[in-house]
Amino acid sequence: MTAEEMITVAKDNGITTLTLNQPENRNSLSMAMLQALSDQLEERAGDAETRVVVLAASGRVFCAGHDLKEIRGQLDSHQFQLDLFNLCSKVMQQIVNLPKPVIARVAGVATAAGCQLVASCDLAVAADTARFATPGVNIGLFCSTPMVALSRNVSRKHAMEMLLTGEMVSAHRAEQIGLVNRVVDEQALDETVHHLAATIASKSGHTLQIGKEAFYQQLEMGLTEAYDFTSEVMAKNMQAADAQEGICAFLDKRKPDWKDK
To answer: Could you read off the pLDDT of 137-155 as tens digits, one per residue?
Structure first.
């Protein structure tokens, strides 16, 4: 299967949907799948037509994590394992650093690195049939890299419970602990995701980029440093053409004309 077949691309009014398309392999994050996803994310970063990225999957499994069959064939190769986890970590960071918001559309099961993929996205909408787990502990391989994204989205005790037990978490429980934003009936999933993506895509792309970047940067700072940093960000943002247009449009009671600058 080619990279283009592994991940299909659809564009609609500023929304680009990237669909993991190996349902026969449970959309596992093989080296080839990770590289294809990395390439797509790199392309989206520079794509002026894309304002929002939706990450979806075909079949009944969103993503089962790493390809254990591929790993079993390389059990004696530390270099392969290191390359695999480094590439996976790169992809997760590409999602966080992408200058466009990323929404996970989750139908089915997301486990291990698949759960990490959901946690790495800026937003996540799940069907009520979706389930989540970090089950590495069950096979003697603790989900250490998925832990990075998981622990930055849910509280420590909830993250530790998932990591230590390896048990499945329902979609509604995932919403309760902050792993996903919304849970909807499976028939309403596409409509809900599209409405959310379209709402975000209607904003200034320049402003979205500023806000997303600042959000993740300030999370790593102390309170005073974060306020100093974001004050500077807002002052700089205020000089942008879109900010000035937005303020004038609001006061004039008209729709803003974004220039994305």
So the answer is: 999 999 999 999 999 999 9
Give me the torsion for CA of 79, 116, 212, 153, rounded to 10°.
Answer: -130
Alpha-carbon gap, residue 56 to 162, rounded angstroms = 23
Q: Where in the chain is the domain with CATH 3.90.226.10?
A: 3-201
Residue 100 · residue 203 · CB < 8 Å: no
Distance CA 80, CA 74 (A): 7
Return the pLDDT at 4.
87
Q: What pLDDT sits at residue 165?
A: 98
Give pLDDT, residue 3.
86
pLDDT digits (tens, 9 = 90+) for 94-142: 999 999 999 999 999 999 999 999 999 999 999 999 999 999 999 999 9
CB 188, CB 213: distance < 8 Å: no
Q: Residue 225 is encoded by which pair of tokens?
A: 């440093």
Domain 205-252 listed as CATH 3.40.50.720: no
Which positions ≥6 away from 202 have C-beta within 8 Å?
none
Query: Rounded to an integer, what distance in angstroms lies between the CA atom of residue 15 and that of residue 194?
Result: 8
Please, what sign has the CA dihedral across residues 130, 133, 139, 142?
Answer: positive
Does residue 17 contact residue 57 with C-beta atoms inside 8 Å? no
Q: Which tokens hold the place of 36?
A: 């294809």
Is the model's pLDDT at 197 over the cut of 90?
yes
